[in-house]
Amino acid sequence: MTPSTPADDAWIRSYQRLLPESQSLLASRRSVIPVAISRVNQFDAARLDVEMSAMLKEQLVKVFTLMKPGMLFQYEPELDAFLEFLIWRFSIWVDKPTPGNALMNLRYRDERGVVAQHLGKVRTGLEGPGLTSPQKIWYCVASVGGQYLFSRLQSFSAFRRWGDSEQRPLARRLWTLIQRIEGIYKAASFLNLLSFLYTGRYRNLIEKALKARLVYRSPHMNRSVSFEYMNRQLVWNEFSEMLLLLLPLLNSSAVKNILSPFAKDKSSSTKEDTVTCPICQVDPAIPFIALPCQHRYCYYCIRTRCASAASFRCLRCNEPVVAIQREGVSSGK
């Protein structure tokens, strides 16, 4: 009995029937390439985005400098939301990185599509589709709209004084609810920060909820901002903040009096220095001398200084002035 000859297209039908099973088996055995993204780069990208928004806001505020002062203050949340929307519209919505992400060589990747992507050819582990349209819209709603609504709600509740005990019970309950929601959000953000420091994924809750992960745009391109520049900027920022904190606490005249003996020698003063008044730097019309150092002053200058300061010191020699005397008169003050 001779076996029957298979049809000409039998092998094609068999291939099409077994192809899905072979692909699923191959995908189950293929492991996802682990990718480590620098946490510093991700934090720097977020900071650069904030700085970019502040620069745009500063330029926009300059347009209204000639208008009524304080006019933009009541619309500041709307202004911030408008700038954040512009950044989102011309970066994330059109599949481009934000300014900070571009400088740090980063882009958003949809982690939900990574498994399907690994069915194809994988080389570096950075492959993966970008964000889908629903993800982009929800990102705008959460980051731009959510921040604007919460800012407006906080300012409105503070203006209406919902937190006062003598307010209506409903307003008091709403204020308590807002505080609890804010506390829960901060606690969740803190836990997400710990998770980010451990895994290197999802800087904030919005990225975690949308499964939008930051990965490198190109595996062979370095960040555009060097660490040397960043370190220098951090040092100068901290130094300027320290000066802004300490300078108002210092007495400039006292510091000047302390440093004046080291600035110049008493014997090196010229004839012009001894003739002119050290306060107004002109030749005294009514010359008076300080006792006991015998340096010349204008009467009104030294009289005003002695009246305003109980322990006035000579500006030339830093000696305490105990009395003043008119030049050429032997009697006392």
Question: Main traits of this protein?
Answer:
single chain, 333 residues, mainly alpha, 3-stranded antiparallel sheet, 12 helices, 5 strands
Describe this structure in words.
By secondary structure, the protein is mainly α. It is built from twelve helices and five strands. The protein has helices spanning 10-29, 39-63, 76-89, 99-103, 114-117, 133-160, 169-199, 205-210, 227-246, 252-263, 271-275, 299-308; strands spanning 106-110, 212-216, 287-291, 296-298, 323-326. The strands form two sheets. Strands 4-3-5 form a three-stranded antiparallel sheet. α3 runs antiparallel to α6. The longest helix has 31 residues, at 169-199.
